[in-house]
Amino acid sequence: MNAPATTSMPRALSAEHRERLLRIAREVSFPQGARLFEEGGRADRFWIIRTGTVDLDMRVPGRQPAVIDSLGHNELVGWSWLYSPHSWHLGAEAASPLRAYEFDAAAVRELCETDPEFGGSIARWVGEVVAHRLQAARVRLLDLYAPYGSGSPR
């Protein structure tokens, strides 16, 4: 849940780009246990966590979904909205009561197209998030399913 500095929204985006993004946000809340999205579903929105935590999970045949990562304050929930075919690669569930900013993906993609500097900032930020999540997923899946775990010193 401790995201690297570049994946936290305030550190990844300039003040101007943060303000521009937050102008189109809608405040939402979810109770603990609420599903934000399911793997394979249509990725038409995303969130930035204000308070609470979200678990990202992955379907595993014959087992319960495996929790890949836990996200907290100022972290991006969902990146699939930015890349075609705009379908979720993981699932997400509120691990605690959640308050977040919600964004309409089409509106943000339009802003990115009309302002290349803003679009570049968003693309770099989301790319950093994707890289971080892929590494977290790799380590978590190795811990869960490899014969000797990830090999990380404990």
Automatic annotation (TrEMBL):
InterPro entries: cNMP-bd_dom (IPR000595), cNMP-bd_dom_sf (IPR018490), RmlC-like_jellyroll (IPR014710). It holds the Pfam family cNMP_binding. Residues 9-78 form the Cyclic nucleotide-binding domain. This is Cyclic nucleotide-binding domain-containing protein. SMART domains: cNMP. SUPFAM superfamilies: cAMP-binding domain-like (SSF51206).
